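Task: sequence in, structure out. Protein: Thioredoxin.
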Amino acid sequence: MATIDVTEDTFNDTVSSEGIVLVDAWATWCGPCKSFAPIYEKASEKHEEVKFTKLDVDANPGVSAALEISAVPTLFFFRDGIGVYRQSGVMNPAQLDDTLEQIKALDMDEVRRQVAAQNAEADAQEAQEDKA
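Result:
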């Protein structure tokens, strides 16, 4: 599968879709981004069930700020609309394959339980701070 460019208009819909979505946050001026591009493209052909996307951080500053991107390339892995992993820096082909296999093996019911627990804890802390 070829890579798909995402923008501020398409990012949320793209990453919230079912399945695995990989986002390569990159910049035209970034040397490591350019060296990683062929690795990323080849992986997109190997893992056809994964949606491989690219986010130009300079052209999409709102999404870049929301994701708190401080270095490029940064890879974001989403599964079923949930961000499950993030890594700054280049991955070699074996690392990328291994990470994707680990994400495929995730128990998403358990991940959803953990996310719900974290959200409940954050809400409780916010409520406590509001009382203070």
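Residues 4-106 form a domain with the Glutaredoxin fold (CATH 3.40.30.10).
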